[in-house]
Design goal:
With 179 residues, the protein is mainly alpha-helical. The protein has twelve helices and two strands, in the order αββααααααααααα. Strands 1-2 form a two-stranded antiparallel ribbon. β1 and β2 form a beta hairpin. The chain is elongated, with a radius of gyration of 20 Å. The two termini are 23 Å apart.
Length: 179
């Protein structure tokens, strides 16, 4: 999650390559990503990711953000599971005594680790279903463009194995069905 935020900050995007953001949001992504990677303030950084995703609805249409719903349960997982032993916050808590994180005031009591993993699975499944429906069935011209540009890698191997009856359209609709 942290490295993804750092990559988004470096490219000036939010959640996906097609969603450009202003420099202030880039700075927020860089700070949150650094906090998550270094391991200092992991809980507040994860809550910040959830807040940043919520603010994204002010800049982008909801249909553009549905593909990236997976970031919410990932942040909740980080909040619930805390920090690993190699994080700086864990090391400081052991050296200096208890911290706000170990006291649990940032951790929701109603959410357990297994529930957060289930939320990740559900969000990933919903994202794939939406992506398959939107990109392959509702707007097949988007997927057709990818097939046209990379036919030698994507389409021709399938056509070689299955035969010439497989058309580009059938390939795209089949990919949507698999997703």
């Amino acid at each position: 999650l942290g490295t993804t935020l750092l990559a988004m900050a470096a490219t000036g995007t939010a959640w996906g390559r097609e969603l450009s953001v202003p420099p202030a949001v880039q700075a927020a992504e860089a700070v949150l990503g650094t906090m998550l990677v270094v391991g200092l303030g992991v809980g507040p950084a994860a809550w910040g990711v959830i807040g940043l995703f919520g603010l994204s609805f002010a800049w982008f249409p909801a249909t553009d953000l549905v593909d990236y719903l997976i970031y919410i349960p990932l942040a909740l997982f980080v909040i619930v599971r805390g920090r690993p032993r190699w994080h700086l916050e864990h090391w400081l808590a052991r050296r200096m005594g208890r911290s706000a994180w170990t006291d649990g005031w940032l951790r929701p009591r109603w959410l357990t680790g297994s529930q957060s993993i289930a939320m990740i699975r559900i969000a990933l499944g919903l994202s794939l279903i939406y992506y398959g429906l939107n990109e392959k069935w509702i707007h097949p011209e988007l997927a057709m463009g990818v097939v046209d540009n990379h036919a030698d890698v994507i389409f021709e191997p399938v056509r070689t194995v299955l035969g010439s009856w497989v058309t580009r359209e059938l390939y795209v609709f089949g990919a949507g069905l698999v997703e």
